Structures are given as C-alpha cells and as structure tokens.
Amino acid sequence: MEIENMYKEMGISTETYAYASAIADSLSDRFKAIDEMAEHNQLKVLAAMRKNRVAEMHLAGTSGYGYNDEGRDTLEKVYADIFHTEDALVRPQIICGTHALNIALSSNLRPGDELLSPVGKPYDTMDEIIGIRPSKGSLAEYGITYAQVDLLNNKDFDYEGIKNAINERTKLVTIQRSKGYATRPSFSVKQIGELISFIKSIKPDLICMVDNCYGEFVEEIEPTDVGADLCVGSLIKNPGGGLAPCGGYIVGKKEYVEQAAYRLSSPGLGKEVGATLGTNKDFYQGLFLSPVVVSSALKGAIFAAAVYENLGFKCIPDSKEDRHDIIQAVELGTAEGLIAFCKGIQAAAPVDSYVTPEPWDMPGYDSQVIMAAGAFVQGSSIELSCDGPLREPYAAYFQGGLTWYHAKYGIMMSLEEMYKKGLVTFKA
Ligand SMILES: *Cc1c(COP(=O)(O)O)cnc(C)c1O
Q1: What is the tens place of the pLDDT at every residue in 126-179?
Q2: Eight-class DSSP state of 353
Q3: Which of 20, 118, 217, 288 has the fewest CB atoms within 10 Å, measured from its CB?
Q4: Ligand 1 in reach of 218 Cβ (< 6 A)
Q5: What is the DSSP secondary structure assignment for residue 140, as one 8-state letter?
Q6: pTM for the model
Q7: Cα-to-centroid distance, 236 and ligand 1 (Å)
C-alpha cells in the first residue's frame, strides 16, 4: 500500500500529510548530522562493551544480597568507560533521576557544608531534596545550606556572582544540563566545561556535579569529558534506550561514587551488594540501542519544531538551533491547542492509544496539567510523551520517541487534531 494511504487509514488527512511530508523532506541535512552523531556514540558504546568483554553470562542476574553479580559490575565498568570516569554506580535500586540526584548529593555533603547552584533554580523535584520548599529529610534538615546564583538576563553565567557565592563552606556545585521546564536554554557540554573550569580556578577541590537528565548521547562528549566530577541520570530516559524498566546511574570520581554507593545501600556494604534480578539484559541492550533511540527522539523534536514554527507557533529550541537535550517546547497559545496537541500524541501511542488525556489538578502545581503518554515503561520519557501546564503560554513539553517513525506519526496526529479543530491553517 502507498504510505500516504496507510497514514490516511491511521487518521491523517491529505492536507496534514502533504504539509508534514514537505517539512520532513526539508530536514534531510539536519538528520544526516544527527545520524553521524548516533554513529559516533554507537561506536563509543560498542567499544566499551567489547573492551570489557561483555559476555552472555553477564545478562543473567542475581537474587538476595546480590554478591558477585558479574553482570552488574561489568555494566558499571562499561558506563565508566563511556563517560571516561574512574567509577560508576548503575542500579535498578535507583528509582528515578530525582533519587539518583538525592543519593549523589546527600552522600557527598556533610552537616555544615553548602551546596551551590550556579545556573539558577534547579528542576522542581530538587526543591524538596534541598529544602527550598521545607520537606521531611531534606538537606536543610541535616544542616546543609544552599546558595543559588541566577543566570544573567542574557542567559549567560553570572561569573562575578558565582565567584562571590563560593565560600569556605561551599562543597558541591550542581549544574543542570537540560532546561527541564524552565525557559532558559539547555547548556552545551562545552559551556558546562567552561563553567567548571572557572569554578575550579576559584576552589579546585569543589565537587562539580552535573544533572545529565535528557542529555546523554545528544553530543559526542559528556560533562565528565570536560571536568565534571559526578554525572547523574535516569535509565528511563536516554541511556536506558527504552528497554531499561527502571534504574539510574551515577558516574564520576571513585571517591564520590563510593560515597554514593554507601548511601544507596549502607555504610560497610557499598557497591558489593544489590541484586539485579532480571534487569541486566535490558540495561545492556537498552544502553546498546540508546544512541540510535536518542537520535530518533532528536529527529522527532526537530520535526516538531519545524512543523509548528512554520505555522507561527514559538518553539524552544527552534528547528535550526543546536540541541543539547531531547526536550522540545511548543507554545500553543491556547488551552484548546494544548489539549488537542496532547490528544494527538496519545492517539499515536502503541499502548493506551484509545485513552483521552484530560487536564487534572496535579499535586504541587498551581494550574492544571495535561499529559500524554502511552509507554511500555511507566513514566518513561525516552518514549514519546508530552505534558504541559494549562496556563500562559500553553506550552507543550514534548520528548522522546523510540523510533523516528513513531515520533513523526505522533507529531502528525497532534497536527491533525489541531487541524480538525480549526486551530491551524496550512499555507498554500
Ligand atoms: C527528569 C529530570 C530529573 C529527575 O526526574 P525523575 O522524574 O525523578 O527521573 C531531574 N532533572 C532533570 C533536568 C530532569 O529532566
């Protein structure tokens, strides 16, 4: 069957198909560059697996205490080689990105220390870890203070402010690579390297940690290649490649990763324990696929930006900009637009495609939020997903796509919903 007819049978009108196809065709140069990045990172991952002699027996898991889990220990060596670090902690017991960040912070800070964010307010879920919002078990409750230096109005680092903020108690600096749900741009690895160099020139023994969520394999290098002492992320985002059913990672200097391991398990136990049950195979295979999965998500993000900016919607980043993470924001301008967009993404999902997303009052938010996700792994955001708060400017935050073709269809379905509602008109 003609591909256009297949799309038509799957709910895409002739008008939407014609418009979206022309956009997709215009992106071939950009996609070629993304394919080259994927090739680079695929080789990097493969080289680490070959060097560490990953074997069939490593794909099996342990139970109980998890002593002598060769698969787990070898996977950690593979991660350490990919990130060019001394050590790694890659575990199914790490629940999510927030948990990984909490482990890295709470294990490397002691009462009386100060934590500094030199890039403005971090991701929402960090508020309660730090105690920005009072919370049970926060760093603040343990006598660890927090300082923050916002970006300048032009979004540059406030070097003067950072210099002034660093004091004798400053122990650890947290740098968030992705913008998350903020309006600032995401940072390139190069920019992060410049910031770390500056910070180390003031206080060489400061621990520089990067929240690498959504950033893995988007560039040829990672923050640990430019001086980060610790790098932290979630396996249900990029490096899990869509296959990891849970988990998180912490890579970096041996001393700091060890601290994290003692915190995750227990003093005295550290990295020696932790059963992997059945997760090793999916962790390896997901990591192996991740560079290509991330490239699919990037293509989807760029396609979405091109589709919507051409219709007059503001897209952050725009379709031409360099990418430093997989997140795409599209400002739809109206509640109706945001809801239609999310409905389209949901309808395109492999799981729960028949479900209609509705705005709801999510705890901790001051406006209603709408979400679309039809994922194999609950909450996985390397899979095609989007969400947005129902308030000005009605931005949809869109990310993921295990395959480019699914991401493409998802965006076409979002556009079809908008088109059916009369919210977009295609230029002749
Ligand atoms: C996703 C994310 C986190 C952690 O979120 P979890 O949902 O706990 O995995 C932290 N920081 C950033 C920038 C993120 O994108």
Answers
A1: 999 999 999 999 999 999 999 999 999 999 999 999 999 999 999 999 999 998
A2: T
A3: 288
A4: no
A5: G
A6: 0.96
A7: 10
